Amino acid sequence: MSAIVSAADTRRSRVRLLIVTMLFLVTTVNYADRATLSIAGPALSKELHLDPVAMGYVFSAFGWSYAVAQVPCGWLLDRFGSKWVYALSIIVWSIFTAMQGLVGFLSAGAAVVLLFGLRFLVGIAEAPSFPANARIVASWFPGNERGTASAFFNSGQYFATVIFAPLMGWIAHEYGWRHVFYVMGALGIVMGIAWIKTIYEPKEHPAINEAEFDYIKQGGALVDMDATKDGKAHDGGPRWDHIRQLLANRMMLGVYIGQYCINTLTYFFLTWFPVYLVKERGLSILQAGFVATLPALCGFIGGVLGGVISDHILRRTGSLTMARKIPIVGGMLLSMSIIACNYVDGQALVVGFMALAFFGKGIGALGWAVVSDTSPKEAGGVSGGLFNTFGNLSSITTPIIIGYILAATGSFNGALVFVGANALVAAIAYLFIVGEIKRVQLKAA
User: Fold this and answer.
1) Distance between CA 140 and CA 135 in Å, rounded?
2) From CA 216, how far away is CA 202, in angstroms rounded?
3) Among 107-116, 169-178, 199-208, 229-238, where is mean pLDDT lowest?
4) In 10 A of CB 247, how many CB atoms?
5) Are 137 and 8 in contact (CB under 8 A)?
6) Is pTM beyond 0.90 here?
7) Tens digits of per-residue pLDDT, 353-392?
8) SS3 44
9) Which of 4, 236, 378, 381 has the maximal Cβ count within 10 Å?
10) Which helix (H) or strand (E) holds 128?
């Protein structure tokens, strides 16, 4: 039997690995663009005379539009397919990222308004990204590989910091903070062109062979998710009743709450963490860029490992619920170690606990695998959009709440407790609200 399986494996093409690699690279650039403001933040806030509350609101500008745009962009994905909606998204958000470098040429008041507006527009442009990632994984990967694939593309958020935090820190130090935005915007435009050349649906990809297509289809991949009709992915697109049914589903409600809390850790890291290193721990902006790479690297390793563990549990037990919940709950409990930073003084210990917390966060960041597992075929984009709407409400609340905590206390201690408490709530949501994880079956209206 093993010889037969081995021969079949040899005959199959591996196009799906190219697809998920492209998702990983685009996600890496996506999160690097989100983090540009945090790297440029200390110098930018000093030049524009912004206090912590004002910086909190500027940090949150991305989140307001990103969260609101999720469901409409999910509808666009279901209506027109992932490839071209996502391609336009990449190019447009990159243009708006580059334009943020221009705010330094304005007076302080006008600069703040323009910066908030451009971050707001970046949020709208990036909104299709993760729902599209989930749709593409659902269409290209069988169920027993979906956890690893989702964890791999999602780990791009940590890899972005590993690669780009030192680069952006160096650029800001050597050339000024404006050039951080110029460089990252140009890179994103190049990535958008590469996306157009690389991404196809399973039935349309020129390099896929029949053996791979049959393998992913028989394994549960939704290979005809974007089957076109008159240039549109689905006639009419998803309906409002689909949204109502998803919001009324207890499993999905638990997943939404969990993702909100998990993303609180993400947005602390993307917004206030470099400021924490500079203001609370006395590092220079260049040092902060390099120090931030260790927790990010641990998050990346944890992210990939979480997917591998999840799919291994699925193959051993056949239980999708156990396979997803065990890494998520365990990872979130481990993430609570971020609170320990309040009780140590040495920089090495602080970075060590941060690294441990983000390793746990990486292991537990399987929400997008759950979306691929649970989304109904006829509303995959909308399902991902709803999930990301709830998850990214924390991109609004986290920077603002932490800004107020800093203004009130002058310290990050309360902020770290707030972040750790969210990790605990995420674990509780998956343990007691989510229940059995399975694909949602929508009822006909």
Assistant:
1) 9
2) 9
3) 229-238
4) 12
5) no
6) no
7) 989 998 999 999 888 889 888 988 777 778 888 888 898 8
8) helix
9) 381
10) none
Mean pLDDT over all residues of the chain?
85
Question: What confidence tens digit (pLDDT) does each residue in 53-77 have?
Answer: 777 777 778 888 888 898 888 888 8
**Residue with token string 């915007």:** 185
Pair of tokens at residue 259: 């993702």
CA–CA gap between residue 206 and residue 225 (Å, rounded) = 18
Which residues are registered as beta bridge partners of 229?
A: 232
CA 102 to each of CA 54, 91, 97, 114: distance values in angstroms, whole numbers, following the listed order: 19, 18, 10, 9
- Is residue 192 within 8 A of residue 126, CB to CB? The reply is no
CA nearest 354: which of 397, 297, 409, 399?
297
Residues forming a β-bridge with 104: none
Placement of tokens 């979480």 in the chain: 306
- Decide if 43 contacts 177 (C-beta within 8 A): yes
DSSP assignment letter at 226: T
Q: Are 168 and 118 in contact (CB under 8 A)?
A: no
Structure tokens at 339: 């609170």
